Amino acid sequence: MSKRNWAPGLIALLLVCCYVLVLVKFFSSTLAIDRLVRQIEPGKAEAATLKHVVLIAQELDNPFWRMVEQGASEAAGQLGMRIDYMGPIRINPSEQMTLLAKSIAARPDAIVLQGISDPDYDRLINQAAEQGIPVIAVDADEPGSRRLAYVGTDNREAGRRMGELVVKGAGGNGRIGVIIGSERADNQRHRLEGFRSVIAMTPGYEIMDVRSSNISRIQAAQQAEAMLHEHKRIGTIVGFSALDAPGILEGIRASGHTDVRVFGFDEVEETRRGLTEGEIQAAIVQQPCEMGAKSVHLLAQYFKGRTTLPERHYIPIHIVDGERMKRAAGSP
């Protein structure tokens, strides 16, 4: 047979080999993709079983609310949930309401939020409940709504404890100024009510002025300075939200006063420093991490079928002063 007759056969054989090779690669790729899909699918199924919980804060980057988020996220990681954290950049009840409405429309498995004591907010929470979305109020309650439970401080009791601290540590000057975080928030009003109940029963003590910081350190400073210019004989100023005590210290310095005692709420870094250095006499300290974690644990019980829960879950508070701060730091 001539070389010319071999050529077409050789070309045909090469074409067949190439075709077979392409088929082999195609089926190998298909099998590889199939294996990959099988590996991914359990992950998708696992993700689908995660309960989606929305946490709506009063203020997005407030240290207190970041700790609530931390506690909720840590508990969620242990209990098969996913936390979506959101909130206004600055305190804004209207924006909280908008975020709640949008969250309900997204149909999460549950919502954790701060109560703001508003009838429209109540209606939104009721709407969530009607759609099978449980709502837990944290830090401030929304008792007029169909929320599942409240988790947070017993705020009237915390106010009473603050009153006892001030009476004990006011140094004989019973003229008191008060800075609250917000006039609209029930938790602030309840703290003030508890505080008033003690001061009203103690001879020689009087609340001279009450002002709002709007959960702002700068406004707390401005209000404290203005308060001291108007009431020059005030001997004690009490702050009822986390950023108030550091702001009050700034206001006292700006006013030129040197003999004003400060009592605060919660334990942000500036408050701890003020306690250690003796500029703040004492602080009532909440447990925001525990509030977040407890809220998630209650939801876990609800998801397992326990639809009736106690309405209020109070998280204990404790008192911190300069001596305790020094002991905790190991100072002599």
UniProtKB/TrEMBL annotation:
Location in or out of the cell: Cell envelope
Residue ranges of coiled coil: none
Domain Periplasmic binding protein: 54-306
Keyword Transcription regulation in record: no
Main location: other
UniProt keywords, alphabetically: Signal
Superkingdom of this protein's organism: Bacteria
InterPro entries for this protein: Peripla_BP_I, SBP_2_dom
Family statement drawn from the similarity comment of this UniProt entry: Belongs to the bacterial solute-binding protein 2 family.
Record's protein name: Substrate-binding domain-containing protein
